[in-house]
Amino acid sequence: MGKLLTIGAPLAALAAVAIWFGSQEPAPPAQITRVPGDGPLPAVSADGQHAFATFAGGCFWCVEADFEKVPGVIEAISGYTGGDVANPSYHQVAGGGTGHIESVLVRYDPAVITYDGLLQAFWRMIDPTDPAGQFADRGHQYSTAIFYHDEEQRQAAQQSRAQLDAGGRFEREIVTPILPAEVFYAAEDYHQDYAERNPLRYGFYRRNSGRDHFLADAWGDTPPLDYATYTADGGKGFSKPTRAMLEQKLTPMQYHVTQEEGTEPPFDNAYWDNKRDGIYVDIVSGEPLFSSTDKYDSGTGWPSFSRPLDGSSIVERTDYKLILPRTEVRSRSADSHLGHVFDDGPKPTGLRYCINSAALRFVPRENLEQEGYGRFSALFDAAGAATSE
Question: Which of the listed residues 274, 297, 345, 385 has the most CB atoms within 10 Å of its CB?
Answer without folding.
Answer: 345
